[in-house]
């Protein structure tokens, strides 16, 4: 049995056929067939129902697929560990980030990683949390920074790195009454509901039976805050990574009880403790903590 055979077995399971696996692995279909026959000899068991055309995995084959995934993950993690040098990490890492993290944490995190691990090449792409989690699951990404999702595939894990409180933000000149009063009286500037934080806000409003007057929809905290500064409406945003700076004209009002969103790392189970993934996680967590602490200090000074 070889790791190549196990990768081919998993590719058949994911693609649905020998032909699909061959295309994914850039080999011929006959090579796929030969590898699977050799694997069946090693396992001393039939893994496919060859009475079907094309052959399909039988129950024993599917059980082996689950174990093969774990073996492949551990093998890849060991290869990363072996490539680690005392002078810093090497190799490449595919990283996904949600837009708010790309704006407020990514630049300083990449700068630190480059200083500590000059030979580590990091490829970055931005996206929404469900999309990034799917890419981690399908191995299109190695790790992603996302808003915590309600459901995750068993093959991947979530490790929190930061917690942000959701607050109602409105111009001081308009801040009269309760949160419910403000949401009824003023146009609501909402997050795109496709975003994790947008879904969390919508769920909070439903649970607390707070109707709103939809006005605008954005995927950028900065844009929403600019709209609020111009007295165009009221918004609910996560406060922590984002700083209002010297925006004394704005008031942020917490929910009671408070509502939080958690940001964290998603990676495949066998990769979460790989040195490259751990280095990225630690760097993001460091700057998230620093950003949150600075925001708390500014808030106390304004009180």
Rg from Cα: 24 Å
Number of strands: 11
Q: Per CATH, what is the topology of the largest domain?
A: D-Maltodextrin-Binding Protein, domain 2
Instruction: For the record, give the distance between the C-alpha atoms at the N and C termini, rounded to a whole number.
Output: 66 Å
Uncertain residue ranges: none
**Shape type:** elongated
Q: What is the H-and-E element order?
A: HHHEEHEHHEHEEHEHEHEEEH
Our count of helices gives 11
CATH architecture of the largest domain: 3-Layer(aba) Sandwich
Class inferred from helices and paired strands: alpha/beta
The structural domain count equals 3
Percent helix among the residues?
A: 40-55%
Highest-level CATH class of the largest domain:
Alpha Beta
Query: How is the main sheet built?
Result: 9 strands, mixed
């Amino acid at each position: 049995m070889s790791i190549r055979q196990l990768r081919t077995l998993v590719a058949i399971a994911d693609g649905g056929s020998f032909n699909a696996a061959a295309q994914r692995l850039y080999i011929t279909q006959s090579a796929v067939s030969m590898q699977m026959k050799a694997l069946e000899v090693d396992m001393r068991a039939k893994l496919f129902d060859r009475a079907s055309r094309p052959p399909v995995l039988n129950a024993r084959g599917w059980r082996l697929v689950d174990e093969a995934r774990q073996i492949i993950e551990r093998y890849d993690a060991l290869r990363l560990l072996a490539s680690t040098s005392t002078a810093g990490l090497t190799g490449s890492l595919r990283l996904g980030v949600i837009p708010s993290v790309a704006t407020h944490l990514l630049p300083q995190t990449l700068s630190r990683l480059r200083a500590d691990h000059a030979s580590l090449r990091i490829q970055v792409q931005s996206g929404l949390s469900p999309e990034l989690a799917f890419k981690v699951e399908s191995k299109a990404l190695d790790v992603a920074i996302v808003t915590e999702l309600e459901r995750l595939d068993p093959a991947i894990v979530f490790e929190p790195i930061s917690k942000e409180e959701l607050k109602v933000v409105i111009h001081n000149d308009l801040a009269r009454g309760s949160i419910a009063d403000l949401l009824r009286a003023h146009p609501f500037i909402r997050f795109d509901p496709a975003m994790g934080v947008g879904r969390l806000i919508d769920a909070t409003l439903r649970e607390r039976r707070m109707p709103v007057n939809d006005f605008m929809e954005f995927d950028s905290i900065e844009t929403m805050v600019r709209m609020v500064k111009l007295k165009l409406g009221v918004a609910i945003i996560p406060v922590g990574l984002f700083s209002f700076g010297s925006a004394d004209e704005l008031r942020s009002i917490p929910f009671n009880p408070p509502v939080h969103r958690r940001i964290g790392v998603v990676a495949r189970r066998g990769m979460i403790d790989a040195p490259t993934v751990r280095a990225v996680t630690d760097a993001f967590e460091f700057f998230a903590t620093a950003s949150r602490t600075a925001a708390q200090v500014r808030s106390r000074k304004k009180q």
